[in-house]
Structures are given as structure tokens and as C-alpha cells.
Amino acid sequence: MTDDQTRPPTAVIDTITESVNSRDLSGLAAAIGELTTRQLVAALERLNARQRAVVYRLLPKQQALEVFEAFPPTLQGELVAGLQDGEVAALFAELDPDDRVWLLDELPALVAQRLLRGLPEHERQLTAEVLGYPNGSIGRRMSPEVLTTHPERTVGETLARLRPRVHDAETVYTLPVLDHERRIVGVVSLRDLLGADDTAAVASVMRDAHTAGATEDAELAARRCADLGVLALPVVDSESRLVGILTIDDAVRILEHEESEDAARQGGVEPLRRPYLSTPVLSIVRSRVVWLLVLAIGATLTVQVLSVFEATLEQLTVLALFVPLLIGTGGNTGNQAATTVTRALALGDVRPPDVLKVLTREMRVGAMLGLLLGAIGFAITALVYAPQVGLVIGLTLLAVCTAAATIGGIMPLVARAIRVDPAVFSNPFITTFVDATGLIIYFLIARAVLGL
Asked: Where are the transmembrane segments (predicted)?
């Protein structure tokens, strides 16, 4: 789908904003009536909380539900605060249990409890089952509404049981096959059922099941679902009994959420968890200020190193000219290694026990990069200044790149081993390490080569 099909025209957004501000409800209804659901979502994400609530109340009931389900959980929670209790209760009851949990995680505890109490008994039980699993686990993101069948049941019987319940389940395209103790023995697809003879037993058309443990990390389970290319992944308890199902659309949603967090934290900010234009300025400030303070404190180590080697700088002031170059090159090298290994961790290409393999591999990569950059740095600096200064720069680039790539490569693995987000742990550490240690290496080499 193209951007033109998902983004509303700028003129329409301006009309919506003007109509809300002037309380021209007829003009507002006409403006939003021209938009598709996707365009409405994009338009509402650009409005503030008050404007969003006004526009939302004018939507037809079915379209309002579709728009609400398409919102990020943070915006859903904000919209709940702007609607009346009756409107909120109706919306909440229409959501699937796993979508309710996404929303409940964003709401104050008292509001969440009130919404849960307003649900019908059956829906409240389903939602409570999902809420019972740990934060970050796939059990908290699965749907407990699953259509199943048994291996001895015929294809015709399975299809007959499927038809009246087709609108109640999260998916009908993949059916777990269970024994009499609800242990999963296989899965069967709707395609296989439709293509088989009605008298055939389900056991003859089912295939082996890939499953996820209910307490397994949500990102890992979602990644496996995407890598396997399956439409749904059954979720089981410790005794292989079915407790829910993860659909591919929910898996993609989890991965998008996790990758947005990783991308933000690798850039030294906290994830906004909502569209940029609808995020209050103070929230953006809070997302950035903590990391700026952490990095500023780390930078004091650099100042300390410079003060220790102040006498060396006074003897040959040209050395100070290359400090930004060396720090920047080392930091970039380390961050490249950390980003590559963090991504490999997310994809399951490497694991914490592979730390020695990664260490030796990144050491070789860093040495080769340092050799190349060092040779170029030596040639240019030797021509402009002096061969001895060029040798200092060349050797420093070789040492700094090797050290930075090695540390950058193993930091994500160390972070995963101690159960810390690799994206949070790696880059600030690398920046501090390279700034301080890189300067120490630089001045030690300068003293050795130049005899200072």
C-alpha cells in the first residue's frame, strides 16, 4: 500500500484541526467521512488528546472500533481518559483478550480494575488468564481463544464444528490438534482440511507442531514465528498443554515494538512508544535527558585523562588536533560492532555462549579496519606534519579500532547474559570506554614513539 493510501492529505488534516477548534461538527464529519480507516488513524495520531477525543466520537461504531484497535497502546490509554465510562466499557469489551492486556499495561491500576470489573464473566476470565503471565512473556501477548480439534476426529466433523465458531477465535487458519489431556500432538491448516476427504481422520492430514512456552520471552517467540513462516504458533504450558496461540500479525506487532525500542536506545534515547507528533514536548525531553546525563558523566573520564597527560600535550600541541578524530573513529567502530552483534542476537544467530567466537572474530575485524585506517592516517599525517607524528596516529588507530570492535562485539553478549537489554547497555559503555581508554592508548603510544 502506498503512502498516499495510508496518509491523509495535508489539507484534510488542516480542515479537521480547524473544524475541531471552531466546533464546526458538520464540517468535521464531512472531512473525516472522506478518509479510510488507515488514513483516519494517521490523521488522529497528529492531533492532541482533546482534539482526538472529539473526532473519535463522530466515527461510526464499527469504524471507531477498527481505529481504536489500530492505535498504539499508549494512544489507546490516552483516548480512554478522554471518553465517557460507557463509551470506554463498550470499546474494551469488543477487544480481544490479548489486545486488552496491551491496553491495561498502559492504564493506571484503578482504571484497569474498573474496566475489568465491567467485562462479562467469560471475557473477564479470558483476560485474567493472559494477565497472569509475567511481563515480557509470550503468555501475556497470546490469545486464549483457540479453535482446536482431535486426531481421531474426521475432517468433516472438524469443519462442521469450525463454522459456527469462526468469528469467535483469533484465527481459523491453523488449528492445534490435541489429545484428551489437551496436550498438543500436531497442527492442521484450514487449507489441508478443505483439500482432504470429509471422512479422513485429522491425524492423516496433521503435521508436527512448532510451539512456544507460555513463559518464554515474547520477542524470541515472535521471532521464531516469523522465521518459521507460520500463520500461528501454539503456546503451551510446562506440560505441553495448550494455553493459547500467537498469530503472525501479533508476532509482527511485537517485533516492531521491540525493534523500535532497540533503535531508540542505540541512539541514546528512550523509546517514545507513540507517534512523534502526538508526543508532548516534555515526554520527548524526558526520553533524552537521562542518556545525556549518563554520557556527560562518562565524558568526565575523558577530562580526567586529558588532565593526566597535560604535560605531554604541552610538549607537542599538535597531538591535541587528533583527539576528536581518534575518539570519533573508535566510538564509531565500537558502535558498529555492537549494532551488528545486537541484531545477530535478536535473530538468534549468536548466543551468550558464543562470546569467545565473537571476541576473536571482532578482534580480527577491528585489526583489519585499524590497519587500513591507520595506514591512511600515517600517510596523510606524515606528509602534513612529520613521520613520527604519522606513526603515532597510525598505531593509535590500529590499537583503538581493535579494542573498540572487540569490546563493542562482546558487550551485547555480556548484557544478554546478565539479563540487561543489549541496546541499553552497549552503546553508553562503548562511548565511555573508547573516550577514556582510547586517549590513554594514544598518549602512551605518543610517549613511546616521540620520547616525551
From this structure: 289-309, 365-385, 391-415, 427-450
